[in-house]
Amino acid sequence: MLTTTATLLALLAPAEAPGQLPQHATIQRETWVMGTSLVITAQSAEPEIALRAISAAFDTVRYFDHLLSTWRQDTELAQLNHAPVGSNAKLSPALAALLDEASRFKEITRGTFDPAIGPLVDAYDLRGVGRTPDPASLRTALAASGLEQFELDAANARAKRLHPSAWIDSGGFGKGAALRAAAHALRSRGISQASLNFGGQVLVLGNPPELNLVAVAHPAKRDRAVAALRLADASVATSGQSERPGHILDPRTGQKVVPWGSVSVAARDPLAADILATALFVMGPEEACRWAASQHEIAVLLLIETGATIEARWNRPMNDLLLYLDSHDVSQTSNASPRRVSCDAQ
Questions:
Q1: In the predicted model, what is the mean pLDDT of the chain?
Q2: Which end of the chain is more exposed for a tag (fewer CB within 10 A), N or C?
Q3: Based on the domain organization, do 42 and 162 belong to the same domain?
């Protein structure tokens, strides 16, 4: 979980010179969309421009909610999820492109990300009171899950559902897709310095000194920040199970992922950050660390619960972003110094 803990960020933020006046007004607005809060803070010499840009960004995110939500029946993705088996469903270019990207991320993560886990969500009743499915029910749900249960023709914006129980859950990629589009809406309207906090996933446009610091919370204590990152034209998402234990499923096995800590992923593309944070959490710390070591642009920070302390591991790209690590809460036994890259040393 990402946080903007005031004390930590105040300590790290640069101080203004005495008598220095801000060159830009800072405008902040908040809305509730996709079941969570979206806060946009924008800087502009012309406040009216910022207000109009923020309004357009909110409208853009609402469009993605109407495109991707599976909590109601009137969205385009919900209609695909209920399309007759074998029928050739026409998709909007936006949805076709997103599903094509989702397919590529499934390959990149070797299956730890797969949004077509609807039958597994149903088997565990994750949207209800919850239950533990019996082995036979779990096998049936797993057989009906996976993007292979959909035949996607992205070039012609069409798709077929191949199994009567198959459906795609946008929870693993919807916020990232919406954030990416919201950022475009802001930039195209003249906003180059801003931060967006969408239910914990943060995106920073430009490099605004007052807005570019993001705190990362303790995996089990959301109100305690244990690390801080400085972002510029990047987004960071964190995945863990402090809020809803047992809600993350492994698409490969259908099993619930055993809580072990948290993963924070920073990337220029908010969609990549959103997807990869959960995918790496599903991998587990050892596999996630090996995956992170192979990356040259995706920054990864693992906070691994080891009893009384937390072990921190990160890859080389995270070196450029990581400003602070709380030595009282975080053990760095695998890092000889705060600058050592433990994932790359494996």
A1: 89
A2: C
A3: no
